[in-house]
């Protein structure tokens, strides 16, 4: 007789009397699949971090650009206002000639001094006179008390006209000058002697801030000079500097 195969409609999968065992190759394949899944997950996380970082950088750059635009707009407005104020204040034609006058006073210990300077300026060159008066009292036995005065012929030059490197220095002039002491007199009250033989130099430098046709001046003046034979055997020398202030006027 023929054997009829047994069938059962309730079976849904393969049927084994002895289940097959998982091979090493299958395990390795599963591990590789898991590694690929993990790598994809890490790549997605890194991509999200990079996107977030780029977005933060773009947001920061946009903020900086907005701040820079505001700063530039404020600077343009400041320059515009300053230019309008300058044009409103300077409604005259700038002159090539001006008059300058400076004075200075100071003291140090037993020494006092004062200076007066007058200049006529044409273009960038200035010509004028300076006078220095000095009273010095010495604790030594040679001079005791000496009173001296001298005059110098000065030449100045407006080295930098209308400095614009810093907004505060707009309409500012730097002036440097040199003077040659031509005459003077020194008297020693202790020795009852005097001399009019004097020689020396004077250096000066000052800044001038322009306000229309007026100019406010401030600077420093240094002098060094020698009076010959104030005593029968000795010359009298002195040097020093002082701060000076003054004003100028165009005409």
Task: Describe the structure in your own words.
Strands 1-2-3-4-5-7-8-9 form an eight-stranded antiparallel beta barrel. The protein is of the alpha+beta class and 251 residues long. It has one helix and nine strands, in the order αβββββββββ. The chain folds into two domains: 72 residues; 154 residues, Porin (Beta Barrel), CATH 2.40.160. The N and C termini lie far apart (145 Å). The model has no long low-confidence stretch (mean pLDDT 83). The relative contact order is 0.12. A hairpin with a 7-residue loop joins strand 3 and strand 4. Keywords: Coiled coil. This is Outer membrane protein beta-barrel domain-containing protein. It comes from marine metagenome.
Task: Please give a quick description of this structure.
By secondary structure, the protein is an alpha+beta fold. 26% of the residues lie in helices and 46% in strands. The protein has one helix at 24-89; strands spanning 97-108, 111-122, 125-137, 145-160, 172-188, 193-195, 198-211, 214-227, 236-250.
